[in-house]
Write a structure and sequence with these properties.
This is AraC-type arabinose-binding/dimerisation domain-containing protein. This protein has about 200 residues and is α+β, with helices and mostly antiparallel strands. It has two domains: about 120 residues, Regulatory protein AraC (Jelly Rolls, Sandwich); about 55 residues. It is built from six helices and ten strands, in the order E-E-E-E-E-E-E-E-E-E-H-H-H-H-H-H. The strands form two sheets. The chain has a five-stranded antiparallel sheet with strand order 1-9-4-7-10, covered by helices on one side. Strands 2, 3, 5, 6 and 8 form a five-stranded antiparallel sheet that branches. It is elongated and about 55 Å long.
């Protein structure tokens, strides 16, 4: 059943990529563990542990959930006629939003209790002020190439596999991907796919 406002606790053991498309609902993403990156236009915005990010409905975006990421998400339907913010960006969450996220993770889904908490969340979302100021980690993701050393070894490997997936989906042969990103070793490429994508 689809409610006007919903809560989801998501766990990603492997890299998970969404295609670039307009969002169907308003979303507030809270990263509990790991890293999520949001592509808006030509730039990637990194949402790391403890941070909140707002994506309004109809926002053209692609999401990358890095391995071992847990995030809590509140989605609000466009059917709600409330004046939610219409710009994407990082959010400085109020104490009440933080408390509501914590509580929502511990009540039955669906339940009357959950809907009461989501009703309160809905009103809190009207006051958020999203700010699309790129963080230093966002800059590192945007400047990444296969020879860069700015990111941790783990994130470098994820970025390499992410780039490989982009090439694979656009029709590039595996041997060429291995040549470009894995020093010519198809074995290294397959091992990286297994570790990062679970495939």
């Amino acid at each position: 059943m689809h409610y006007a406002i919903q809560f989801e606790d998501k766990q990603f053991d492997y890299l998970s990529l969404t295609s670039r498309k307009p969002t169907l609902k308003h979303q507030l993403i809270y990263v509990v563990e790991g890293l999520v990156s949001v592509r808006l236009g030509k730039l990637e915005y990194a949402i790391d542990k403890g941070h909140f990010f707002w994506l309004p409905a109809n926002c053209l975006s692609a999401l990358s959930y890095f391995p071992n990421t847990r995030c809590k998400v509140v989605e609000a339907s466009q059917r709600l006629t409330k004046p939610f913010p219409n710009k994407a960006g990082y959010v400085k969450a109020s104490e009440l939003i933080v408390a509501l996220f914590d509580r929502l993770a511990n009540v039955p889904d669906p339940s009357e209790h959950q809907q009461v908490l989501l009703g309160a969340m809905q009103y809190e979302l009207l006051d958020i002020m999203p700010n699309l100021q790129a963080t230093s980690l966002s800059h590192k993701l945007n400047q990444w190439d296969s020879s860069s050393k700015d990111l941790s070894i783990e994130y470098q490997m994820v970025m390499r596999v992410k780039e490989a997936e982009k090439l694979r989906l656009s029709g590039t042969k595996e041997a060429e991907i291995a040549q470009r990103l894995f020093a010519g070793s198809e074995q290294s490429y397959q091992a990286a796919r297994l570790a990062v994508l679970g495939e």
